[in-house]
Amino acid sequence: MFKEFKEFALRGNVVDMAVGIIIGAAFGAVVKSLVDDVIMPPIGLLLGGVDFSNLYILLRAGAPSAPYASLADAQAAGAVTINYGLFINVVISFIIVAWVIFLLIRGMNRLKRQEEAPPAEPTTKECPYCLSTISIKATRCPQCTSQLETAV
Predict the structure, then answer these.
(1) What confidence score (pLDDT) does residue 29 get?
(2) Do 36 and 89 meet the contact criterion of CB atoms below 8 Å apart?
(3) Is the pLDDT reported for residue 151 higher than 70?
(4) What is the pLDDT of residues 72-91, one digit of tens each?
(5) Are residues 74 and 147 in the same domain?
(6) I need a labelling partner for 50 at 20 to 30 A (CA). Which of 15, 60, 129, 130 fits?
(7) Which residue range is the domain that position 20 belongs to?
(8) Which pLDDT value is given to residue 16?
(9) What is the Cα–Cα distance from 51 to 2, expressed in whole angstroms?
(10) CA distance 24 to 10
(11) Local confidence band at 63 (pLDDT 50, 70, 90 cut-offs)
(12) Number of H-type helices and E-type strands within the chain
């Protein structure tokens, strides 16, 4: 059984999948930083200094009671909140990841289409009488001088 497991674990697909998961996790961290540290601050500034990560709806106050200066203060007080600002950040992260994956797949599909170029038009044909290779435009075989049927 150990031998079978070893064969399964060392298959190319499993190793490729593991590499993909590791790269995906690292890519997720980069996108999270991009959204939190680069994209959201200017958007918040344009919307009048709003920090999306601090947007929440207070369902029940904790001790001490509301108002809270930030989401972190509300959570530290034990308040029950709906954190829709964090959800907005996650949605923006998802859109960025989906867009980048779309661009990667689109590029791969273009490369694949270029590799699968249609075959070139034939320039030669075979004489049906002597089986020698002749020009596709020939009307008479230069080897056996047979009259060839012309394709219309």
Answers:
(1) 87
(2) yes
(3) no
(4) 999 999 999 999 998 988 88
(5) no
(6) 60
(7) 2-118
(8) 81
(9) 53
(10) 20
(11) confident
(12) 5, 4
Q: What is the mean pLDDT of residues 95-114?
A: 85
DSSP 8-state secondary structure symbol assigned to residue 83: -
Which amino acid is located at 93 in the chain?
S
Residue 106 shares a structural domain with residue 64: yes
Answer for the pair 44, 27: CB distance below 8 angstroms, yes or no.
no
Return the residue matching tokens 């961290």: 29
Residues 90 and 130 reside in one and the same domain: no
53 contact partners, CB below 8 Å, separation of at least 6: 36, 40, 71, 85, 86, 89
Considering only CA atoms, which of 121, 141, 140 is closest in space to residue 132?
A: 141
Q: Structural domain tally of the chain? A: 2
Record the tokens describing residue 31, joined without a space: 């996108």
